[in-house]
Amino acid sequence: MSAQQIDEKKLERAIRKIKHCLALAQSANENEAATALRQAQALMREYRLTEMDVKLSDVGEVESRFSRAERLPAWERNLSAAVAHVFGCTSLRKRQWDAAKNRIVARASFVGVTPAQHIALYAFEALLTKLKFARKEYAAAVRAGVYRSSYSAETAGDHFALAWVNEVYGKLSALVPKGEEDSQASSDGRDIVAVEAQDKALIDEYLANNGVGKARKARDIDIDMNAQIAGMLAGRKVDLHAGIARGGEDTLALSVLV
Questions:
Q1: Residue 48 pLDDT > 90
Q2: Which of 66, 61, 38, 30 has its CA nearest to residue 203?
């Protein structure tokens, strides 16, 4: 067995363990959710701290299976950026020809030092599924007159989704501590900070080599206050927990506290 095959098996095991932690427990207990996310982060750090000598070739990009016929909406771009930041990656918006759909599509992708980009994609797709459902429900309620809005139902749904993302990003950030806030020994803390700086430098080099420039600053938009409040409240109810799905593949299920 070659060294490359051994490394690939080690990587697969690391990703499997991290996904298992991200799936979390059967309980909706916030403390258990926090513990599981910290365990996932710890596994990522452990893998990276034992792989300090990474190279540009260890940086990779993975694309979401979800796509749109037009450009990604602001709330979906914000979600991909939030997840990327939490897991030490960079999110990109890709527009490319899809032979299966016979048209140009837009989708999110993640660039990171392996296995970070895979974990970020995994979390993003689970959160996006949940967000799409919540936004659709809110827009339908506006359309039915349950909620009042001076905007169209679709636009109010967009504003709801933006606030939802902000709340969930705050929860993710709080549950996944960064290196400088870690309670580990100071030497380990310094190693973690060094790894994060090294990863960022490699990602920046990867992007530069692939002709990817800096993202443009998002323009300010007027927000429907009612939709914003509803999105904040819905985001606060999102709890990162649930079991492992049947069918042999781990899923990061997201439930809502009642």
A1: no
A2: 61
Closest among 225, 200, 15, 194 to 114, alpha carbons compared: 15
Secondary-structure percent of the chain, ordered helix, strand, coil, rounded to 5: 55, 10, 30
- pLDDT tens-digit readout, 185-242: 444 556 667 767 778 888 888 888 887 766 666 565 666 778 878 888 888 777 654 3
**Amino acid sitting at position 48:** R
**Which candidate, 53, 43, 52, places its Cα nearest to that of 191?**
52
Strand partners, 112: 60
Amino acid identity of 183? S
Residue 159 CA to its chain's centroid (Å): 19
Indicate yes or no: pTM above 0.85. no
DSSP state of 87: T
The C-alpha atoms of residue 116 and residue 38 are separated, in whole angstroms, by: 15
List the chain domain ranges: 3-256
d(CA 124, CA 25): 19
Give the DSSP H/E element, type plus range, for residue 46: helix 30-49
